[in-house]
Amino acid sequence: MTTSATPTSEPWSTVLQDGTGPVQGEVLDLVHRTRDSQSYCPELIWGNLQTPDYARAVLRRVVEFHEVPDDIEAGVAARTARAALIGQDGRTYHTLLGEQALRRRFGGVEVMRGQLAHLLDATEWNGLRLGIIPSRAELVALPEHGFNIYDGALVSVETVASALDVTEPAEVAVYVKAFDWLRRSAVYGEEARGLIRAELDALG
Questions:
Q1: 8-203 CATH
Q2: Alpha carbon distance 119, 81 (integer Å)
Q3: Would you state the pLDDT for residue 139?
Q4: Distance between CA atoms of 103 and 90, rounded to whole angstroms?
């Protein structure tokens, strides 16, 4: 992750040239340094809340699509280690998931069942505010790609071809505004848990 003053973009072929482990390790370091995080994940379960099986299925697709070294277990270990920081040392996390993220299947039914059960537990974790935007919700803001905001100073965006870091204050402010508008369409607490339970029931 870069912290330069202007937006920077690196192709995944460069970022992942040594596999997923080093990249996930860098993200873990960034999460460790961050006190306040805001994340919007419309189609995928937020990385900090992924189970090992779910993370393994996601990273398998990354390795195969980008044709990079297969060190998936190292990537899984670093990615899932982020969860241990939730609720620690005053860190705060506000995360928005699209309801679609609960439905996208990675790794099969059993993997998704475990992931959703884990997510259900996470709705009650200290330090985490988890909102879900129902698929039929009226959106205050236009739906956008996912992004992560770190301490209101760095925005990380993943595109199909590259990883983009934004640190220019005016641009960061646009992402902060987008998050604030998106959260108005989200449900929390028991309403959010109801959506997760519904998807668990749908798995049979």
A1: 3.30.870.10
A2: 16
A3: 85
A4: 32
Q: What is the pLDDT of residue 8?
A: 76
CB atoms within 10 A of CB 112: 24
- Does the pTM surpass 0.90? The reply is yes
Token readout for 26 is 């860098």
End-to-end CA distance of the chain: 40
pLDDT above 90 (res 142): no
- Using CA of residue 129, residue 132, residue 137, residue 141, what is the dihedral sign? positive
**So where are the chain's domains?**
8-203
